[in-house]
Design brief:
alpha/beta; 3 domains; 17 strands; 19% strand; disordered C terminus
Length: 442
């Protein structure tokens, strides 16, 4: 950022320059209007600080001349004075002054500088823009402005191709579209399509800001654009400084939105995942399992569940330490997550207990699957303290009534039987004949 200071007093100008430097703002210093205008001819300043009384006029005259010469400039002009009456009569507003500060209240001016340094719109932004405009001259000019800002531009002269690009490529940080376009779709149609998909949550990129461009700068047209879902608009012919400011704001807003979305996803993950094993925690498992059960009952499918407990886990902690016990839990969690099918749900249910929900898995397959898991667990830690597991299995077939609590309770009862029969085994109470058959086969 760069500032211009105009003041008769060299010592006060240096004091301002020091304050600006502390806010990482470079500054030039002069004492009169003519030198200030000459400096502005050769340098773009983000803001100007001027005293009320100058060598060849006043700070108000300086502001008037600057606004007349550079009417499109977004430069802020601050008047710094000891005259408190100047602030109250508001005459400075008509001159083009942005705000007035008193020399006795330099602290408020310093806070303003910090705020300006944070919020100053910068041309050096990054992102991908989907730009829709069928006017050749206007599209070339706007594309050049956007590329000079550091943006990647995908330009189309009709909404149909732009819509296809939006759906196919993704990764769009900003959409800029004209209202009137050649082709069957208008700019409003494109906006509604984008907002319709975002509202349904089908696009993984999330919210995308939209800047509307229209040659009809009237209230009804603006209402149409905002009702369709735009976030901001510019009128034709576009003014470069205004376009840059609005585009920069929307790109920054998009980046902030993405950061918040990532943080929210991380918070949800931390709230739903057991941090030691990486499996779902008990609460998250129950929330998901309820939905699976409702779907199972609705579609008349079968569903099964394992309830798994590490055998004599307390002895491992007591004999080898909790670090060894934690490592065993981590390895077991990895085995269960890696071995499960797509759609299966694995949870550390508490302590050394795990559950696994198996949608569309019947009783016979569930028992065989659990037996396979049991064997893998017994072979898992050959070079470490070995572990085994007892597993209870339950299943609901089509036509049976029940909920996730009864499914878990049934598996828990089967687990108690497994632990009461020397452990390291799978028990499915409802299918004793199948169990005997499998045991005989071994």
């Amino acid at each position: 950022m760069k500032a211009l200071i105009i003041d008769n007093s060299h010592s006060y100008a240096m004091q301002l320059a020091k304050i600006l430097s502390e806010s990482h703002i470079d500054s030039d210093v002069c004492t009169c209007i003519s030198d200030a205008i000459a400096n502005c001819e050769n340098q773009n300043y983000e803001f100007i600080c001027t005293s009320l009384v100058l060598e060849d006029g006043s700070g108000l005259e300086l502001a008037e001349q600057f606004r007349q010469r550079w009417s499109e400039a977004t430069t802020a002009i601050y008047l710094i004075t000891s005259n408190e009456g100047m602030y109250r009569d508001r005459s400075w507003i008509k001159s083009g002054i942005t705000d007035v500060f008193f020399k006795s209240d330099i602290e408020r001016f310093t806070l303003e500088l910090h705020s300006l340094a944070r919020l100053q719109i910068k041309k050096d932004v990054s992102g991908k823009v989907l730009y829709v405009e069928d006017g050749r001259a206007e599209s070339m000019r706007t594309t050049l402005i956007l590329e000079n800002m550091g943006l990647e531009v995908e330009h189309y002269d009709n909404a149909e191709e732009a819509w296809e690009c939006f759906m196919r490529k993704g990764g769009i940080d900003l959409v800029i579209t004209d209202l009137m376009l050649s082709g069957l779709m208008t700019g409003l149609s494109l906006v509604r399509c984008i907002r319709g998909i975002n509202s349904n949550g089908d696009i993984h990129d999330g919210w995308v800001p939209i800047l509307g461009v229209t040659g009809f700068d009237d209230v009804s047209r603006r209402v149409d654009l905002y009702s369709a879902g735009i976030d901001d608009y510019v009128a034709k012919p576009t003014i470069e400084t205004e376009l840059v400011a609005r585009v920069s704001n929307l790109i920054v807003l998009k980046k902030l939105f993405d950061q918040v979305a990532i943080q929210q996803a991380e918070l949800v993950k931390q709230a739903s995942i057991d941090m030691l094993t990486g499996c779902l925690n008990r609460r998250s498992f129950l929330d998901i399992a309820e939905k699976y059960m409702a779907q199972t009952n609705r579609n008349k499918h079968c569903i099964s569940l394992f309830y798994l407990d590490i055998d004599y886990f307390k002895n491992i902690n007591d004999s080898y330490g909790h670090a060894e016990g934690d490592e065993a839990l981590v390895q077991l969690g990895e085995l269960l997550c890696n071995d499960c099918r797509d759609g299966d749900v694995v949870s550390r249910f508490g302590g050394e207990e795990f559950v696994m929900l198996l949608p569309q898995c019947n009783a016979d397959d569930a028992y065989r699957y659990a037996e396979n898991i049991r064997k893998k667990i017994s072979k898992m830690r050959k070079d470490k303290v070995p572990i085994t597991a007892s597993i209870g299995v339950s299943s609901f077939e089509p036509g049976m009534s029940g909920n996730i609590d009864s499914l878990i309770a049934s598996a828990d009862n089967a687990l108690l039987l497994a632990k009461g029969h020397c452990r390291d085994r799978v028990v499915f109470q409802e299918h004793q004949s199948l169990i005997r058959k499998l045991n005989e086969a071994e």
